[in-house]
Structure formats: structure tokens, C-alpha cells
Amino acid sequence: MTLAHPHTRFHRPPGSDAGEPPEARGVARDAVKLLVARPGGVDHVHFGDLGDYLRPGDLLVVNNSATMPAAVDGRRAGQPITVHFSTVRAEKVWVVELRPAVNATGHLTDVDPGERVDLPGGAAIVIGSSYPEPGIDGGRLWTARVVVEGPDDSVVSYLARYGRPIRYSYVARPWPLPFSTELVTELVSAGVVIAPITLHAGVSSADAGEPPNAEFFEVPPATARLVNSTHAAGGRVIAVGTTATRALESAANAEGTLRQAVGWTDLVLGPSHPRRVVDGLITGWHDAGASHLLLLEAVAGPDLVAGAYREAVEHGYLWHEFGDSALLLPG
Length: 331
Prior knowledge:
CATH class of the largest domain: Alpha Beta
Largest sheet: 9 strands, mixed
Number of strands: 15
Order of helices and strands: EEEEEEEEEHHEEHEHEEHHE
Distance between the termini: 31 Å
Oligomer: single chain
Strand order of the largest sheet: 2-1-15-14-12-3-10-11-13
CATH architecture of the largest domain: 3-Layer(aba) Sandwich
Number of domains: 2
Helix content: 10-25%
CATH topology of the largest domain: QueA-like
Strand content: 25-35%
Number of helices: 6
């Protein structure tokens, strides 16, 4: 797939990665900074002020998935490594990424087709070819045949037994989103509705220029009904995160009506596939060139997104999972 380049360009200074949770910085979880970008301008507030920008009848759609337990310990020629399962390509054939077992700052660059990696529980993978383009030496992603033993030999069930969520070198351990119990209670009391979808992210942090991999998602019937009734009543559908956005748009038809859906999605929002359902987006900050920026631009427009990123750099916002947030409301 040839991926279009995002319109948004920016250079953020060193030290703008949030490598630890807000609590470790002496900041309450819902007190991280929130940049609210609308056609009329930008506000700099805190996440706990989110309710000031939502209206009764708005619908927040959240991803109820803890990230797929897609990291598995393995042994390669007797040496410990970590295998990241990304996406399914065929029955028992997955796209994987191989990394050092500890202190990994990147993928292994000496992977060869045909080599075997042993996994817990008598399982293994056998490397096929580089992905998405075969024949690339030192590539990040590879297809692999998965050998799983036992009565339930599905790869997803195996990951549930032996896997753990993927975390990268700047993440010491998992932490929850900035939605505190108090904030959720405040939003619901004010008439904001919250509904779930599911999208299991595997190797979700594609390198610059890489399209996101196919990911498993589910939009339940009740959420589809709530989205359609919200629009019919004049309310807004606000996705919490790019995963929620991707799941919703994957379940929408050309007229913007949502239906129950379950399966794998390889949807890339952008110029060739505009948004049809999502009216606004709560998101963290993404690196320059990332495919997530195309999704943001498809929802909020390139000018609004570019302006938000300029403001975020100028005002010292923090990037990545533990960083600050943005609310994009294109109007």
C-alpha cells in the first residue's frame, strides 16, 4: 500500500516524550494538559475541563480493549528475544516483529527467512518473508507460520494464555487513561453518553511512512444504535483515540450509518477515504510522518490539525501514552 503523506509538519524539541505517568511527575491523571482546537481558535486547559467543551446528547466512544496481549517471550538459537504479534494474514500465518528481550530500542536486524523461534507451551514460529515487501534485508516486520499445540490451537487463544500487552522502552508499566472516575461521573451527570467499541492493537506504533496493520475490531449493536440515534438527534460523536475512530469508520456505510460489525480492519482514513461518522476526536500527540496524522486530518481537516500541533510544540506539550491530550472539534 502506498501511503499518502500527512499535511501536518512540525519539529518538537528534545525532552518532549512523557516517559512516565503523570502521577510520577506530581500531576493528577485528569490534570494533564488538554489542547482544544476548533475553527475559531485554540484553548489551553486541563483534561478535567473536558466537560466544558461537550454538550448534553454528545456521545463519547471509547475502546474497551486493553491492548491485545501480543508480546510473547521466545528463544532464538537459544537466546531470549521478544516476539510481537501484529496482525493475521492467513490461518496460522501472522505478521510479527522480533526484538531483543530487554532494553529494546528497535527491532532485530539480522532475521532470516526459514529460521525458527521457540515459544512457551511448545509453540513456535517459522519466519517467512519480510512484510509488506518480501526480500528486504533488516526489515522490521516479517510473516511467520505459527505452530500451536493443544485442543484450542487458535493463535488468539494462545496469546491470551502466554502473551502480554506490548510496551516500548519508554514505558515502564501500563497505566490508565486520563478519564478519572470523577470526570466520568461529571460527564454522565451532564448528559454526555459513553459507549464502547473494541479494537485490539498489536504492533500499533508503525514507523513513519508505514500504514497501520490490520487490527481486530468489534462495534456492538448497542453502540451502533447509539451512534445513529445521536446523529439523528443532532448530537456529536466524539471518538476517544485513533483506535475508536478506526473501528467506527470501519463499520460505517457510505451514507454514514453505523452497523454492527466484527472482524479485521485495514482501513486507512485519508484523502481517498474521508470520515463518515466521527465528528470529533480526543487523542494524544503523534510523531511527524505517522499514519495517525492522516486519520486526524481526515477527521478534523489538515489546517486544524497543523495549527494544533504548532500550538502544542510552542506550549511544551508532552508526547506519547503518558503525555498530554488534544480535543479536535472541526465543527
